[in-house]
């Protein structure tokens, strides 16, 4: 990944963390890695464990950020989320957890548009 893509991704994750905190989420962990995969944000929403995938774009060259969430990426996020629960020995099961998506479109000279999709897949 190029430096500019990494910086854009990090900026998007910062926006997502700020957004989630404002909604009352407690951030548990960021950039949890397992093998070659990663969960961008792990958070608690009241008593529910939430795995958050962040998609950030600063142009519409490839469509809205939601379009970047392929079936393959969904399977990867779900698998890593399950492994997180197993590895951390979390008291919650996957039935007490969900996967959210935060899609951020940050066009030049505009306020970032944040779309929070709860229980996305």
Would you give an account of this structure?
It is a single chain. The protein has 121 residues and is an alpha+beta fold. Helices cover 31% and strands 35% of the residues. The protein contains two helices and five strands, in the order H-E-E-E-H-E-E. The protein has helices at 3-22, 71-88; strands at residues 26-34, 37-45, 48-57, 97-105, 113-117. A five-stranded mixed sheet has the order 1-2-3-4-5, sandwiched between helices. A hairpin with a 2-residue loop joins strand 2 and strand 3. The longest helix is centred in the first third of the chain and has 20 residues, at 3-22. It is globular and about 45 Å long.
Helix-strand layout with pairing:
Elements: H1 3-22, E1 26-34, E2 37-45, E3 48-57, H2 71-88, E4 97-105, E5 113-117
Parallel strand pairs: 3-4
Antiparallel strand pairs: 1-2, 2-3, 4-5
